[in-house]
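If it is no trouble, might I ask you for a protein's amino acid sequence along with its backbone structure tokens?
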Amino acid sequence: MATQSCVYDVPMALDSTLSRTRGLDPSSAMERNNQHLSDCLDHLLGPMPTDDFLDTFLPLSSQENKSGKARSRNAFKDVPVSWDAFDEMCSRLLPALNKRTPKQARCPGFVFEVAATRSLHPSEPGFMKPGICCYASDNVAAVHNSPFESRVELGYAELFIDMQPDPMDDSFIDPPSNNNDKMRDSHEFLRLVEDDPINAIRTLGQHVAFVTEILARQFRTFLFSISLSGSSARLLRWDRSGCVVTEAFDIRQDPETLCEFLWRFSQTSNAGRGHDTSVQLAPPDEQSLFLDALRIEVRAQLELDGPAIEEAVREHYSPGHVYTIDISRQDLPASMDTTRRYLVSRPVISPLTLVGRGTRGYWAVDVVTRSVAFLKDTWRLTAVEELEAHTLQRLNDLGVRHVPLLAWHGDVYESTDSSERPTARDYQRTSTDRVRSASWLCQVNQRKLHISRRRHYRVVLGTVGYGISRLRGAEELLHAGYDVYVAMRDAFDKDSRVHRDLSVGNIILVKHPDHPVRKGYLIDWEVSCKVDDAGEAREVGRVGTWRFLSRRMLHPDGDELKHTFQDDMEALFYVVLWCALMYQPHNLTLEELRKIVAEVFDERVPFMPGIVRGGGGKMANAMFRSYTSVMEFGSKHLDEWIKTVADFISSGDEWKGEDEDKWSNPEHLDVYWATFLQTHTLERDNRFVHVLRAPRKDGLPPLASKPPSHHLHSGHTPPSYTSARPKQESRKRASSEPNADAEPRTTKRLRSGRAHVQQTADRLFKYTRSPSEGRRRSERLVKKREEEVRVAEEKRQKDRAGEKATARGKSRGGARVVAAGTASKTTRTRTTSETGKGSSRKPRVRRRAASHGA
């Protein structure tokens, strides 16, 4: 069927050094996979019957001609029930997947190839790739010509197969076939994470990581994948609302299901395979137009000249990767020109999580006006009545200062060449929510499902700038921070609105020709909310960026609380404090800085199943100044501001005593901040970058961190990956602390303050149930599973006895290839080379060995 072309291998956002992809540091891969696993547990639906899955997500057309479909009978008879050697498994599976004759094929137009071994470190998390990837035939050469250290496979993958050695390595457990609906409701579909958390991270967590990266490296609306545990398979469909998982089927005994899936997959359109066809590759003349406009804007924003401009442009541009995006407004009369075309290239924001908004952010160029704008590509909740564009337009009309200007916006629909207005069915939307009430659903990890309906949406802002993390000095930090506070107050006073997501990522610095210091703008008003007469948000619940949330919203009951303006005020303080700690000179060692970040900003404590809390460090600071009291910033005026505002926060608490309340009335902070900026001269170019990256645990050399030269030309130091304090401070500390092994004085004070606040934690957080109760519940469920696992294990041993002997005989004497992703109880294969050249001891291969995953 005729379809529009689709775009592959799109650039991702770079980190501040412009040398690495942001957010994909291999050294933190296990931590990311753990978070992926945790995030997806509320969004897994299954087990869906395979026939229903195919008819719902890959329906047949009425004119379907199956004459070209290869026969399915005995298609996978050579695939073992379980396997020890990954390369042997692939040698049996790939011929069946790629089967074709002059007139018939298993999946015409597509090729399946091993991806797991195309890596410099195929068994190391962060470097791993899926076991097998499916590519369009035209893209195979591009994959072959790419270096092993690239991630091109994920940029071209149409779908992937995640492979584990044995059916017992399946992340899911189907209910008995004779279960009624009531029994299915209580059946646990997910193999208990508490039973083997490391294996869960290495298998399901890694599977989600593959999906997330593919959705970031391609323009997609959804993605199919296959989970293959031994010969037991499941089909999965992923979008921004979650994942639908089928019931398990054995490809040896039931080859027709997989064959039918692959045939339908090959026959549907590009959009039917999950591609966003509203994005197209720009022609050469428009690519040149984009680059010229981008250079002009970068020169104006960063005040650069010469070669530094070209390096700064790299943040927004990748040669050969300029795309056209047409945005059509649905709120204008049909008689008007409702469509504008924009050019984009490398995003400054890439989506690094699966479920949710999946936001990408670009510097974009309007093809007609040639002006540079900011294009935000996101998946909005359809349940939210007010679009972000409508909020911005209202704020613009009301004269709210320091918020971006609205340029254009619109929902995304599939057919970009249609002359007719789209209907609701034409819009790109999630489909996981279509089956959230199905009768076949089982519970997942004893948690309540959270499946939302989302629609693809784009909004264009007429204001562009650089994130506040690119600040040049204390002057820019506090002036931009005050600009944001003015925007907050204007929105509250003129529109009764709170932002609810104050964070480092939602403040940009914009250069105005008539101002020597860049202005701060508050962006991303998508989750903002009107307040009631009591000053509380009309919408209940915790939203925003965890790291910067107020103490109150980090309470275990935060999901049941209503946001207030004071919560936004406190979040803004933490943004300023974070920027000061990361980008200003101070007295803290790297270890002390990591400790403060972990306890003040990143604390996440399991409270009850499915519930976490934080804010202990923030509470400690509010009560005893346990953290800010030990900080000494190189800028004495910045140090004064931080300590004073920390006192303001404390004065607003109910246990403050008789001190004056300087927090509940926003006017106090406004007057203090404005007066402070008028009476204090702050440093303009004292940027100093502190890096939190922990030493690598994989034994590999540190990643390169060559700074972009335009940072140096723009008057501030680039992110550094060596020291946590200026050299003179390091020498001073060395002379005053002869015992290098002694605990630093600051660390002792941090520990002491932390212990003090723990004494009042129960009263402050008002715990109603013991966290150990959740652990006891998990233990009971684990015991319940033990008997099920024992029975299944006995049956499995009988079924695979013959296969096991054959597989071990064939794998003797050679080093097996470790595939991406590892199954439970991972062990390394001992080969002849490991035991010694002259050793007569045969290689010891353990069946539940490291599998392919990434």
The chain has a mean pLDDT of 83. The domain at 471-522+527-697+705-766 is CATH 1.10.510.10 (Transferase(Phosphotransferase); domain 1). The chain has 23 helices and 24 strands. Residues 771-811 form the longest helix (41 residues).
